[in-house]
Design brief:
Layout lengths: L14 H13 L14 H12 L10 E6 L2 H21 L2 H9 L4 H4 L2 E8 L16 H19 L2 E6 L4 H8 L5 E11 L8 H4 L22
Antiparallel strand pairs: 1-2, 2-4, 3-4
Catalytic activity: FMNH2 + O2 = dialurate + 5,6-dimethylbenzimidazole + D-erythrose 4-phosphate + H(+)
GO biological process, one term: cobalamin biosynthetic process
InterPro entries: BluB, Nitroreductase, Nitroreductase-like, Nitroreductase/BluB
């Protein structure tokens, strides 16, 4: 009996396609306030969400949802929640770093024409999920893969993206009517930008530097000390 194969060729990409993938990876940036007000066409938003939805997920659990926020009034309310948490965050840093922290412009929520809240439904596939039997956090890790897919697709489309992490979960859940059982994984700001930093902004502005890869790679076993 003849059966149709469900397999596809697994060879390498062409040089141009391969280089495009690496270009997206190496030039992706976390955009904070350089957004232009120009709206993102619906067709592109759909492509970005489709890219996110094609992320790998352990046990094919696909635990993500995407809340799209375009209304300025909604984004303003979210920004106020962010600002409240950000004011608290300043005091958590040593005094010597507080002025540098305050100098970082974190206005993406207000300036970007589109925000996306990415969530994880940890109950979607029941109590026992293939691949999550011994590591219950795999659904969260899978959702982060969706965020990365979305980020690289945005870079390919010429769209900047910023990941906002300074907020209280309870505040954002109340604003977006998110059930208590649902985990917020990422709040993202998206919009067109004229330019991107050649290096990560926090490196350019002296907050931190990229670690040397050779210091992070071990052979066969852990070699990084106790």
């Amino acid at each position: 009996m003849h059966t149709t194969s469900m397999l596809a060729p697994a060879g390498p990409f062409s040089d141009a396609d391969r280089d495009a993938v690496y270009k997206a990876i190496h030039t992706r940036r976390d955009v904070r306030d350089q957004f232009l007000p120009r709206p993102i066409p619906d067709a592109i938003v759909q492509r970005l969400l489709d890219a996110a939805h094609h992320a790998p997920s352990v046990g094919f659990m696909q635990p993500w949802n995407f809340i799209i926020i375009r209304a300025q009034a909604e984004r303003e309310r979210i920004w106020k929640a962010f600002k409240s948490a950000n004011d608290e965050a300043v005091a958590m840093f040593p005094e010597a770093r507080q002025s540098k922290y305050k100098s970082l412009k974190l206005e993406g929520i207000r300036k970007a024409p589109l925000s996306i809240c990415v969530t994880c439904d940890r109950s979607r596939n029941g109590d026992v999920v293939l691949g999550r039997t011994h590591n219950p956090a795999m659904d969260l890790y899978s959702t982060v893969c969706a965020v990365q897919n979305l980020w690289l697709a945005a870079r390919a489309e010429g769209i900047g993206m910023g990941w906002v992490s300074i907020f209280r979960d309870a505040d954002l859940k109340a604003l977006l009517a998110i059930p208590e059982r649902i985990e917020i994984v990422a709040f993202l700001c998206l919009g067109y930008v004229d330019e991107l930093y050649e290096k990560p902004e926090l490196e350019v502005k002296g907050w931190n530097t990229r670690l040397a890869l050779e210091d992070l790679v071990f052979e066969d076993r852990w070699q990084g000390g106790d």
